[in-house]
Amino acid sequence: MSLIDRILISPGGYAHLPRSCVHYVDDLRAAGWGWINEPDPVYWDRIAADNPAPATNGNLGLTADRRCTHCENAFRAV
């Protein structure tokens, strides 16, 4: 199992992994993104509409209820 050090949450409600897709932005705070530092190793797999992930840093008003498919594929390839 790969460890995830941060889950990013886009303003559109998608969960992303750092530098795993084209949606990545360099300045998360300026772009209005939220994130979760050092999540539980299985947290990524649990993100879904019935189990949304709230941001704990950055834009605290965001939640992710789906995972970016590009990031998901990159995560599974490791």
Question: How would you describe what is shown here?
Answer:
The chain is an alpha+beta fold and 78 residues long. Helices cover 17% and strands 24% of the residues. It contains two helices and seven strands, in the order E-E-E-H-E-E-E-E-H. The chain has helices at 43-46, 69-77; strands spanning 6-9, 14-16, 34-37, 53-54, 57-58, 63-64, 66-67. The strands form two sheets. A five-stranded mixed sheet has the order 5-3-1-2-7. Strand 1 and strand 2 form a beta hairpin. It is globular and about 30 Å long. The mean pLDDT is 92.
Write the layout of secondary structure elements.
Elements: E1 6-9, E2 14-16, E3 34-37, H1 43-46, E4 53-54, E5 57-58, E6 63-64, E7 66-67, H2 69-77
Parallel strand pairs: 2-7
Antiparallel strand pairs: 1-2, 1-3, 3-5, 4-6
Question: Characteristics of this structure?
Answer:
78 residues; alpha+beta; five-stranded mixed beta sheet; two-stranded antiparallel ribbon
